[in-house]
Input
Amino acid sequence: MLSKSQARAFFLGGTVVTFLIFIGLTIYSFQPKNDQTNHGQIDAKVVRGKEIWEANNCMGCHTILGEGAYYAPELTKVIERRGEGYVKAVLQSPIPWGPRGRKMVKYEMNNEDTEAVIAYLKWIGNIDLNGFERVVSPLAKDKE
Amino acid sequence: MKYKSQKVAYWFFGLCMLLFALQIVYGFIMGFARIGWDGLHNVIPFNTARAVHTNLLVVWLLTGFMGAAYYIIPEEAQRELVSVKLAYVQLISLALVGVAAIVGYHFNHWEGRKFLEIPRELDYLVVVNVLLFLGLILATLFKGKRKTTTALVLTMGLVFAALLYLPGMIWFDSQVMDSFFRWWVVHLWVEGVWELIMGGILSYLLIKLTGVDREVIEKWLYVIVGLTFLSGLLGTGHHYYYIGVNKIWLIVGGIFSALEPLAFLGMALFAVYMYRKGEKSHPNKIALFWTIGASIVSFIGAGLLGFAHTLPQTNIYTHGTLVTAMHGHYAFWGAYAMIVLAIISYALPNVTGRKRYDKTSGHMAFWFSNIGMLGMTVAFGVAGVAQVYMERKMKMEFMEVQNEISIHFVVLLLCATLFTTGILLYILEFIKYGRPTDEALEVKSY
Output
């Protein structure tokens, strides 16, 4: 029958081994040859877009890369699906956007910030998501 | 109650009750918004309500864990807390940081990262607060007469939880890296170190409530927390399938996250077996209900419902849908909310000296909240599965689908009302117990 010291060894040994593997896999994932995000294309505009995204807690309603609040549309492929003009109109709308009854916060964004958000969403739209990009936005897929 | 300083736990539990009640209010705001009743949109838009709802959850659970530690550690270490005054300072500063964060959310002041919305300047205050808490717990443990496995596992969980907060404070230019390391906090908290805390509290409660030998219980505690880390660490990979990182996570995450229910199954079997093995008939039946309930519901919510969408082949369709909300609600409820309510139910009679052990309202609180939460989980689940088929298979527009599934949110709100009734009864019981008193030291506690 298992003793308490054997149980402790199982806990400590298992934890250390899996932790080391986890760290190893993390390093492996972020090696440049394994990049799926076009990391080199992240310029100042994309970074500004990400800052605006976070400053307004867009993830508190929308989802991106499948993560968020499920209250408003998934935006991973929104540029392909809707086009830049539509996204611009939403961000600059002087009234809360809500064509189907569910309201968005009114941002009345200026041109510079709007372009930054669009640059950020374009960068997001080009990430290789291991096949999820084909499922998350079938409407965008149909346009291809 | 054996040590005067254990009384400090009561005030942490009181703060828990307050924050929990507030969390439910914001949950209702979100629920009503989903069926089109969004009259508060200009004051509390959905993203504010959502940030408040999830952050209050995290804060009240952490407050509960802290209260549990202040109650358990003196008894396990067999000495008073090193400083009660500093524990109160820690409580008040924790409450102030929490209130500042929540008020800030209403003025668009946040980091905008799911679960980690607290703005950077408050992050530093959280770190100071948690360091003070850990200092008090570790010093008490270090100076104590004994160092039990239960106390060590609980403390280890709290220390790791504090350390894991740090990766969430790093800023990345890439959304993918941001997301990757955000899960180091969120996943490794809830499917890692928080389970250590849960295991520690569960172990303490089982020792007290069943009378089974400490050595037996603590041996199995090691096995369970061992299983937790063995599966949970690499199980983090299930968050990495489709966020823009290497395919290797599909295999690693798939295999190890499929093993994650084992830890919860172990916890449920452990609690039920110890209960049956125990010869002690503890009079605090309510605490026993919450304790055994936590172990079983966490297995269903975190284990089974997590497994339901953890394999990459399923997750490719369910990722980013309400299926996640289904799993999230029942998992947090079973694993963490119920264990906090269990330790509160156990500690209250001991710190107040009033033995309201078997009151009908206490039992009603248990059943109403559990049946209500089960109903909410089913409503989220049905809405989520319908969303997956309509949106991702039938290619319907997002809002078209949302309108189709809005009826499930009416069901959700009805079940949430039952749940809230249960929680209000629980809070009422908490109030009826009255304040903690030194006289409780003279009352025999079981």
